[in-house]
Design brief:
heterodimer, A: 454 residues, Serine Threonine Protein Phosphatase 5, Tetratricopeptide repeat, two-stranded antiparallel sheet, two-stranded antiparallel ribbon, B: 1096 residues, 22-stranded antiparallel barrel, 5-stranded mixed sheet, 47% strand
């Protein structure tokens, strides 16, 4: 019996230990906390700005650049999915990645950046956040047209965001930029100021303001087809924007495999796209364009042998958002469209080619020779815009803006690879058709067109 | 009153009893249980059947053994020899049920099935889980692949959880052990961890830790198939339980015995996809070699009989360059190389020795096992050693203490598989007929001339000049994956029989392991051309404690009962430490210090549950048995508001043959009806209540992406495409289950039948609900889905023939389960379980869990999958060039459900023929129905290597109606001018076309074309096992050996299936919910072996 009593005591102790512990409220819930994640209150704007710039650079240089360069025949898909895309066999599923990364990694985190910056009174970060938000949103509108925005980014609180009209979104973007410019101009930058984590401008707010005007210039030039007032507005924005290549909005990738440029990664890991054999590559080589050997590398014979040049294809190559040369091309086009003289436009046009070639490191002699051959605009307004666009299309190599340029100017003339038409938009992704069916419109690669494309 | 009774017991005179337990033929029955009726006292007979114990004179001894009918004898003399009859029907045997409760099977009202030790070592594989295949009804066993150390997926009945675990709880000697898959796919772009976020399509074959168990240490495995049987286990056993009882030493005076077995098995590759051997590397009918242009990646080149070698040996081919018939340097005609020479014969040595014995009061067992295996793929290896020790002692009449501990050490060299440029099968099956990966070397896996270009560049030698996909010989040498597991699990238990009517049991157990893997890719590997290394360290800890009080009372001669009350406490912790380096400086130095950039991550998951439970068991006239149980459980994975819940179960068994009406029945000698109802709960995933910030990373479907920190800048993200929003409102999933069954014995149990029908409905199933990315996130967790399962399980056992010398036993298992995902979340038609964008395994509302989903051919009526195909009627492209796809089917831009991975039914027939000392066993397994996605063939047809592409250039006319889709997506057809579009489809297709390269690359195969043609039936009939045993010495023979036998066996020697890929029993994603995918899965094996058993 003594034995039994001892056991009873042991059991009593054991049970009460376990039960006693359970009386503490946190006995269970403590265990369920993810200790490998930072506390939300410790997140500062700088760690979000890094993310937003990096994910934007990767998204644009990845799916967006691949799809648009294949559609505009700057590159050629020679194998697997890229071969299909080149022949326009896109399905909605193919756009899940581009759309998903834009909405979750780029825009949602950008929203968080703005929210945290606003709550801390970090005006400089708030301004940068709004400029980046405007840029990314515009990239989305230009590819898809109407998009969810005002109803979006609400997580579980709104699972089926309504779509905002694409034209109205252009106003939203303008407002974001105006607010952003005001915040960037505020002498009170706030307690936290951007620095080295701002890979695009290292915290130089004056350049961010110029970038904001460059985005506004794009907004106007996109709507300038048959609308001189829009062209005039674009000119006003260009005047407040970049003044040299030193102002270029460019995301520079790192030098490691986990921070590598997306085109470099694609060529290393997939290599389904040819650069030298594409219509543009072939054309540049045939024309002895000095950019041929910068964009492409016909002698390229490493593991994957796809012929991409180092300027855009190296591990740490830049992904360009907007650069000075594009603004000069816009200036030339807007000058013509707003009724200005072709001679004046030609000056900007030549500066644009020069800025582009200087950016790419082409010698002055080669630039002079090129301008001698291609630096003169035809006498008609339509002809001038067409030639300006054809040249701008080369300067916008691998930039999704080239797809927009082609759609709104029709230059250069592209022959469909298959079928009767070259696509004029991205398809809405399968995830929207599956999970936001009531709001997403039917889309094909040809319709509905983005509002400025009508 | 009880006190007086027990005093009386003590006063009674004890006598020593000894004897031997044998079967009807006189052969010893090892490990039989001899207990004194009405007490907890008992011993186990030794391997030679002898036992010894002390009992009150006149007491009744109950002698039982698994597989035999129990017998009661009076302890009247000192020597008692007991002969037990074979229990063909398996009805009266004692089975271990939940919490280690031993109960006579006849008293159970739930479906259980027990597999004995002799059934668990048939294949020599050393994998206790794969040995279960076909041995029971209602059990699904799928071996992921034939590689050493690959995983085995188990499921009892149907899927009840969408994103949670559907595998049964594994319990060893009363302690739950971990069966997790800790997996990392370094080559996956979007997600490289195992679990819900991964597409699970690349990397190495995942292993579930349940395969660590050594079947030689297992006495029996009891399957508790439904919630009624497992209600006492709670959350963890919501998908059933596998109760594993290990072999023990027995108390009883008979010294020690030794058993030894040794087997040698040879593995061969079982099935492989067919190759075409007519056309060469290249495209458009023109040969291109490894240094040729873009078409060198294909096998759409010239006919082999038009090609010759020129004899100029070079680094690509010892036969020389491939040249045409008109080339003056042509020497020998080209022939097709055999890519499958890559596979080798695998060898498995499996050795086990066990020492067991005891004294009057104590028993012990020590065992040592080793399995050493080389695979059918060169350099794949598995080496596992197990050491196990257990003991039990009666400290007093009332107190018994027992403990056991098992140590397992394994080392596994695995190879890359699946969707991964380093995958063995991917590299092998895309290799053109005119390229020899082995460079003609007999020992290619060990000779770098086969896989490194012998020109000083260090680049790999493959059919694309170093690009594309890794030469399989490169992969096995340069992309090693080595994994070490060190594991200890065990238990300690004390039983205290205070009085006859009350006893206490306390049991603690633990399971701790570390799993450390190193996976490297040398420079010039196509998955990581700059080189990469991944160090993956997991530690896992499980602790479990159960305290139970057992009470019993006899109310009257007709009515008795028992009550069990218990408390359970359980903790789980899994830590992952992952380090990655990339950008090697030095070649062939696969070490972290050689990397130039590093990232690392850590993760820790913890869980804690506690429960009170009780079970009351009532017995009326030994005929009617009622069991009622309840469990209240608290779990850490739910918010305090919802983290405690209760679930009950009740079951009733009625042995109707005990009624007088049946007492004289010559036909039906045993009959039981059983009915049960139960509810179980399943909690939420760990850390699922909140949304957390994480180190930022982004990737798309094509590249591995970028990861912060970058250049010293930290980056955090709240969201990405794979971010699931946490949900603090999650509640437990609930499954209500109903079961009705009968167990019947005919002709004195010469024929027995067990039949069970069940229905279960799971509500509030937690699932990761994909949401529109426009919400800012990828998914959210909800209690949303409802899933139902209904099924039928039959087991028939019979002895059709029996004489003194010859016996034929046969047992048949058959089961059918009908699963239905009744609903997912509102507005969510489907949820991805695993797979590719165009070859997914999904849960789709209204259909069974496990639908193959992907792109289909365009039907003439887009809303009717049964309407005729729409055949492309566009003769010309926009530029006036002829349309190469004219007259061919059109691929729809809409995806649809195109297959169901669930079989209609599965069954097995196990025959055992015994003639004197000779015994022959044959097991036939059948899987009828069910689909599998053969993405392997789809890709091979794109590249032109598959056998079906040998029909190239042959005429074709596709059945369907002419038409196409206009720019708005409407079905239209062209007028005669081939320009004007007319609404609706046109007439029947009469366009003659050919099976062109274009056809196979865009329409005929799933690689970039439709998923639909890749869906195949996975039905099979196979002879899973055959074994022939000769018993040289039996236990009854006069010999110093208690047994000596030799067995020859064959596994998977024959398989009949229409499936065009590898063994249809395969799983790309491994032992997880997403079954039914084949995309360059490593092949299965057939094996032949010999085994020696010695007892001493």
């Amino acid at each position: 019996m003594k034995n039994f009593k001892n056991n009873i005591i042991i059991y009593a102790v054991l049970i009460s230990t376990v039960l006693g512990a359970s009386c503490k409220k946190t006995f269970f819930s403590d265990v369920n906390v993810n200790t490998n994640a930072p506390d939300p209150s410790s997140i500062v704007p700088s760690v979000m700005l890094s993310t937003v710039e990096g994910t934007l650079g990767y998204s644009q240089g990845g799916d967006f650049s691949r799809f648009t360069s294949l559609i505009t025949q700057q590159t050629e898909g020679i194998s697997r999915q890229a071969q299909g895309y080149y022949q326009y066999t896109f399905t909605s599923v193919d756009f899940d990645g581009a759309w998903g990364n834009l909405y979750t990694s780029v825009l949602e985190n950008n929203k968080t950046l703005v929210q945290i910056s606003d709550s801390k009174g970090d005006n400089a970060y708030s301004g940068i956040g709004r400029v980046l938000l405007a840029y990314s949103l515009q990239m989305g509108v230009d590819m898809w047209g109407s998009l969810p925005y005002s109803d979006a980014f609400k997580g579980a609180d709104n699972l089926q965001p309504k779509y905002d009209n694409d034209k109205a979104l252009y106003d939203t973007i303008t407002n974001l930029l105006n607010t952003g410019i005001a915040q960037l101009s505020n002498t009170n930058k706030g307690p936290d100021v951007p620095g080295g984590e701002d890979v695009i401008y290292s915290g130089n707010l004056a350049k961010w303001i110029k970038f904001a005007h460059a985005i506004k210039a794009r907004l106007f030039i996109h709507q300038s087809k048959g609308n001189a007032a829009m062209a005039t507005s674009a000119l006003a924005e260009i005047a407040q924007s970049f003044t040299s290549n030193a102002d270029n909005a460019v995301y520079h990738f790192g030098s490691t495999e986990t921070s590598a440029n997306p085109w470099y990664q694609f060529n290393q890991q997939r290599a389904d796209i040819s650069f030298d054999a594409s219509p543009l590559g072939t054309k540049l080589q045939a024309a002895n364009d000095p950019r041929a050997e910068i964009f492409t590398d016909p002698g390229f014979n490493d593991v994957n042998g796809v012929g991409m040049g180092d300027y855009y294809g190296d591990i740490s190559s830049p992904v360009e958002l907007i650069t000075y040369d594009e603004l000069l091309f816009m200036k030339a086009e807007a000058t013509v469209s707003s009724g200005g003289s072709i001679a004046a436009a030609q000056g900007f046009y030549r500066s644009a080619i020069t800025a582009n070639m200087e950016k790419l490191g082409i010698s002055a002699g080669d630039i002079t020779a090129y301008l001698a051959a291609h630096g003169t605009l035809p006498g008609t307004a339509a002809g001038a815009v067409s030639q300006i666009s054809s040249e701008e299309y080369i300067a916008l190599y691998l930039n999704p803006e080239a797809f927009t340029l082609w759609r709104r100017t029709g230059s250069p003339a592209l022959t469909p690879i298959t079928g009767a038409n070259v696509p004029r938009r991205f398809l809405y992704p399968q995830t929207e058709y599956s999970y936001n069916k009531t709001n997403v419109a039917t889309s094909t690669l040809f319709s509905p067109k983005v509002f400025w494309d009508n | 009153m009880f006190f007086i009774f027990s005093m009386h017991t003590l006063l009674a005179q004890n006598i020593d009893v000894h004897g031997k337990v044998t079967d009807a033929t006189g052969a010893a029955i090892p490990d039989a249980s001899v207990s004194i009726k009405g007490t907890k006292t008992g011993v186990r007979a030794g391997a030679d059947g002898t036992f010894k114990l002390s009992a009150r004179s006149g007491a009744t001894l109950v002698v039982s053994a698994i597989g035999f009918e129990a017998k009661e004898v009076a302890a009247s003399t000192s020597e008692i020899n007991v002969s037990l009859g074979q229990d063909v029907r398996g009805l009266s045997e004692v089975v271990v049920t939940a919490l280690g409760i031993r109960r006579e099977k006849r008293q159970l009202a739930t479906a259980t099935q027990t597999i004995n030790s002799d059934q668990l070592n048939k294949s020599g594989s050393g994998n206790a889980l794969s040995e279960l295949n076909g041995k029971a009804s209602g059990l699904t066993v799928i071996n992921s692949g034939g590689e050493p150390g690959s995983g085995t997926y188990l499921r009892l009945r149907g899927v009840t959880s969408i994103t949670g675990n559907n595998q049964p709880l594994m319990v060893v000697d009363g302690v739950p052990i971990d069966n997790s898959v800790n997996n990392y796919d370094a080559t996956s772009a979007t997600a490289n961890v195992s679990g819900s976020n991964s597409n699970l399509t690349g990397g190495v074959q995942p292993t579930n830790r349940g395969v660590d168990l050594n079947p030689n240490d297992i006495e029996s495995i009891t399957l508790l198939k439904g919630p009624s049987a497992t209600a006492l286990y709670g959350i963890q056993a919501a998908s059933g339980a596998i109760i594993i009882t290990t072999k023990k030493g027995s108390s009883g005076i008979r010294g020690t015995s030794i058993s030894f077995n040794s087997s040698l098995t040879f593995d061969r590759v079982s099935r492989l996809p067919d190759f075409q051997k007519i056309y060469s590397q290249g495209g458009s009918g023109i040969y291109q070699g490894p240094k040729g242009g873009g078409d060198r990646r294909l096998t759409w080149g010239a006919k082999l009989d038009t090609l010759f070698w020129d004899g100029n040996t070079n680094i690509w081919d010892p036969h020389g360059n491939v040249v045409g018939a008109s080339n003056p340097n042509k020497k020998t005609p080209v022939y097709a190389y055999d890519p499958y020479e890559f596979f080798q014969t695998g060898t498995t040595y499996n050795n086990n020795i066990a020492l067991s014995g005891g004294t009057a009061k104590s028993g012990f067992r020590i065992s040592l096992g080793n399995i050493s295996q080389t695979g059918i793929i060169p350099k794949s290896k598995y080496d596992k050693s197990t050491f196990s020790i257990s003991g039990s002692t009666n400290i007093s009449d009332k107190l018994n203490i027992s403990a056991g501990v098992t140590y397992i050490k394994s080392a596994n060299d695995k190879v890359q598989q699946g969707s991964n440029t380093s995958s063995i099968m991917l590299g092998l099956l895309r290799t053109p007929t005119t390229f020899d990966n082995s460079y003609g070397l007999s020992n290619a896996a060990n000779n770098p001339a086969s896989y490194i270009q012998q020109n000083g560049t260090g680049q790999q030698r493959d059919y694309r000049g170093g690009a594309g996909y890794d030469n399989p010989y490169w992969t096995v040498n340069k992309n090693p994956f080595h994994e070490d597991v060190n594991r200890v699990f065990g238990y300690g238990q004390a039983n205290y029989q205070l009085y006859d009517w009350i006893s206490f049991t306390y049991r603690v157990g633990g399971d701790v392991y570390s799993q450390n893997a190193k996976n490297a890719y040398d420079i010039f590997s196509n998955a990581f051309p700059a080189g990469a290394i991944h160090l993956l360290n997991y530690t896992n800890q499980v602790f479990n404690s159960d305290f139970t009080v057992n009470l019993k009372k006899t109310f009257s001669s007709d009515f008795s009962g028992s009550l069990l009350l218990g408390h359970n406490y359980f903790t789980y912790q899994n830590r992952a430490r992952l380090a990655h380096g990339s950008g090697f400086v030095l070649p062939a130095f696969l070490d972290m210090s050689n990397a130039t950039s590093y990232t690392s991550s850590e993760g820790e998951q913890r869980k804690r549950t506690m429960a009170f439970y009780g079970e009351a068991h009532l017995d009326y006239k030994n005929m009617l048995f009622l069991t009622i149980s309840g469990r209240r459980e608290t779990t850490s994975t739910l918010s305090p508001k919802y983290n405690s819940f209760f679930y009950p179960s009740a079951s009733l068994a009625f042995e109707f043959t005990k009624l007088d009406a049946f007492s004289n029945s010559k036909v039906l000698n045993y009959g039981k009806l059983r009915v049960s109802a139960a509810q179980v709960g399943k909690d939420a995933p760990i850390q699922a209540l909140q949304t957390y910030f994480a180190q930022a990373t982004i990737a798309d479907g094509f590249t591995t992406g970028i990861q912060f920190p970058i250049d010293g800048n930290a980056g955090y993200q709240l969201s990405s495409t794979i971010t699931t929003i946490g949900n603090p409102e999650l509640k437990a999933e609930k499954t209500n289950s109903y079961e009705l069954g009968t167990d019947l014995g005919f002709f004195n149990n010469r024929v027995t039948l067990n039949a069970t029908a069940y229905y279960s409905k799971t509500t509030d199933a937690i699932l990761i609900v994909p949401i529109a990315f426009s919400t800012g996130f990828g998914a959210q967790l909800l209690n949303a889905a409802t899933i139902s399962n209904k099924g039928l399980e039959l087991t028939v056992a019979a002895t059709p023939f029996k004489s003194n010398d010859f016996t034929w036993d046969v047992s048949v298992n058959w089961s059918k389960n009908k699963n239905k995902v009744v609903s997912l979340a509102a507005g969510v038609p489907k949820v991805l379980i695993a797979g590719f964008q165009n070859g997914e395994i999904d849960a789709i509302a209204g259909k069974a869990f496990g639908q193959i989903y992907g792109s289909v051919y365009q039907r003439s009526d887009p809303n009717d999958m049964n309407s005729p195909l729409l055949i492309n009627d566009a003769k010309f492209n926009a530029d006036g060039s002829p349309n190469t796809l004219y007259g061919m089917p059109i691929v729809s831009t809409q995806n649809a459900a195109i297959g169901d991975v669930n079989p209609d039914w599965t069954g097995s027939v196990i025959n055992t023929f015994t003639y004197k000392r000779l015994s022959l066993g044959v097991q036939l397994d059948v899987r009828h129905g069910g689909d599998i996605w053969n993405g392997t063939r789809g890709a091979m047809s794109y590249f032109g290597t598959s056998a079906e592409t040998a029909n190239r250039n042959q005429p074709a006319m596709f059945k369907g109606v002419l038409g196409h889709l206009d720019v708005d997506g409407n079905v239209v057809h062209y007028a005669a001018d081939n320009v004007t579009e007319i609404a609706k489809p046109g007439g029947e297709n009469t366009v003659a076309t050919t099976y062109s390269q274009d056809y196979w690359q865009t329409i005929g195969s799933s690689f970039i074309g439709p998923a639909e043609p890749s869906v195949e039936k996975s039905s099979f009939v196979r002879i899973r096992q055959m074994s022939l045993t000769y018993n040289i010495i039996r236990a009854t023979d006069k010999s110093r050996f208690s047994g000596l036998s030799v067995t020859v066996f064959a596994n998977n020697a024959f398989i009949w299936t229409k499936y065009k890929g590898v063994d249809p029993e395969t799983s790309l994603a491994g032992p997880v919910n997403g079954q039914g995918l084949d995309y360059f899965n490593n092949p299965g094996t057939k094996s032949y072996g010999i085994r020696l058993n010695v007892g001493l």
